[in-house]
Amino acid sequence: MRLGGEQVGRWGLAVLAVTGVASSSPAPGPSLSSEPYASVAYQIWPGPVSSAASQALTGLAISVHQRASGLAVTAAARGQGPAISQIYPGGVRVYVVEASLGDDSGNLDYSLGDDGVVVTDAQGRIIQ
Questions:
Q1: Reported pTM
Q2: CB 105 within 8 A of CB 5
Q3: Of 31, 43, 77, 94, which sits 20 to 30 A from 123 (CA to CA)?
Q4: Which residue from 2, 1, 8, 5 is spatially nearest to 113, judged by alpha carbons?
Q5: pLDDT tens across 67-124, in order?
């Protein structure tokens, strides 16, 4: 899932405005493991969600629901406008990226500039 809008965060992650609609055959991009933010990407789908992933989700509303056409991934920053949804083929993995867990407290994230959502195919390649 590419997140649109401004380029933000220390690695240029774009935050929480999902752009476009995934085609039935989304183009695979680079491997998530080859990206500089891989070490701060926490898998949230399929579960279970780790405690680090739960902490990374602070301030974000991300959900994944199975649909007849695939998986609907919905993302938004809490209190920052409407959620955006995109459909992906089955078998994808969804990650939340949180470069600085220290900026989170309770249910608030004080700096969304280091947050993002990444969707990969079953081979770990980022779906574009």
A1: 0.76
A2: no
A3: 77
A4: 8
A5: 998 999 998 887 777 888 999 998 899 999 988 766 555 565 555 566 789 999 999 9
